[in-house]
Amino acid sequence: MRRPQRPPAPDDGRTPAPPAAAAHDREVVPDRVSTLRNFFALHPAQRDHLPAARIALSVAVPLVAVMAAGRADLAIYVAFGAFTSIYARLEPTRARARHQSQAGVLLTLCVALGALLSGAPEAVVLAVTAVLAGLGAMAAAYWTLRPAGSVFFIFAVGAIGSLEDAAPVWQAAALAAASAGFSVALGLASRWAGEGVTGPVAPVPEHHGLSTGQLWAHGGRFLAATSVAGALGMASGLSHSYWAMGAAAAPIAAPDLEARMQRGAHRMVGTLGGVGVTAAVLSVPLQQWHMVALVILFQFLAEMFVGRNYSLALLFITPLALLMTQLAAPSAPGELLQARAVETVTGAVCGLAVVHLTRSAAERGLSGPSRRGRRPGAPDPRGPRRTPPAPRG
After folding, report:
1. Residues 340, 233: Cα–Cα separation, whole Å
2. Mean pLDDT across the chain
3. Residue 276: which of 246, 315, 323, 240 has the closest Cα?
4. pLDDT tens readout for residues 47-99
5. DSSP state of 16
6. How many whole angstroms from its chain centre is CA 30?
7. Which of 136, 153, 237, 389 is the residue whose CA sits 20 to 30 A from 4?
8. How far apart are CA 84 and CA 57, in angstroms?
9. Strand ranges (E), 135-182
10. CA dist., res. 231 & res. 241, Å (int)
């Protein structure tokens, strides 16, 4: 909703009328201040502890199971399957089951594809991941999955495809499918805790509302951004180039231009802060069981804040991702932290560039001089201000 206009101060004859330039400045500043305030805003909680606990449990049980079996190398496959639980947050039970089943199938296919690519040249892995980014975003949009976009699909294919010796395709797919199935079952059971039944219930659109051309254009933006980000990441010589691809995809899924720009900035600022948190965590000698416990804790904290402020949630998402990476393929912490910071900034800039270049005609008008030239009291051509939905990835 638009913020109410402050009533003018009474004219007691002592306050001179402001010059035209000053009046114009006053018209511009509130928009900038509002944008800055929204960047740092901590939006109200919406019973976030319910989905946060469910998602953390969906991750915890499969991870503990493979660790108890002495197979820490299998943690990455069950973890990506467990990310099924992140979808359809606070949706009604039937819609959540449908959307999580669809997301689980996509994630399982991505895990299998990643295992199939294991050992292939990096350029091949990144090229396939970029194509998957576009197709995955189209599938998510067509099925109205939330979170939107293809960030999790990118990470599943890129991370597993980058392993030198991944598990056999059938084993990787079976583990991911079992973990995804557990997440769906837990999603069904969460109705007894009231998620999607009482309190805030996420709206579920009946149709994606996109034409065939718009759907392909949507996928094309993901393909373009991740292709450039992956190429730059590979050229940097750092590890984990798929991180740049995930960061490039993150802003594109937001619902409008302002939300996309804000999400890209959040991605950079939050990740850099999260790298600092991870540096502190990895400065202490950790056993594998310690890492698993921290992954579960960070998953819970990330879900508590992801709908309230994305950059704050990334303080927990970043160490979560890096600890999972250390479980799958341990490496020097310094190199890992450097790669995460550089690849994320590189990818986010690529994503923002694609957002800027592919603006609609209406969005170009809103970001141009006409926005500043709006006379005081005139209606905002953008319509009522919208708060972006809970961003993910």
Report:
1. 11
2. 87
3. 315
4. 899 999 999 999 999 999 999 999 999 999 999 999 999 999 999 999 999 99
5. P
6. 28
7. 389
8. 12
9. none
10. 8
- pLDDT digits over 93-136, tens only? 999 999 999 999 999 999 999 999 999 999 999 999 999 999 99
User: Among all chains, which residue has been given the structure tokens 């270049």?
Assistant: 357
User: Which is higher by pLDDT, 268 or 255?
Assistant: 268
Instruction: Please answer whether residues 299 and 320 qualify as being in contact, where contact means their C-beta atoms are separated by less than 8 angstroms.
Output: yes
Please give the full DSSP string across 207-268, using - where no structure is assigned: S----HHHHHHHHHHHHHHHHHHHHHHHHHT-S-THHHHHHHHTGGGSSSHHHHHHHHHHHH
- Tell me, what DSSP letter sits at residue 74? G
How would you classify residue 387: left for phi > 0, otherwise alpha for psi between -120 and 50, otherwise beta? beta
Tokens 């590890």 correspond to 239
Say what the pTM is: 0.85
CA atoms lying within 13 Å on the CB side of residue 269: 13
pLDDT at 1 over 60: no
Structure tokens at 378: 């005139």
Q: Assess contact for 158 and 132: CB atoms under 8 A.
A: no
How many residues are given for the chain? 393
Q: CA 316, 244, 331, 281: dihedral to nearest 10 degrees?
A: -20
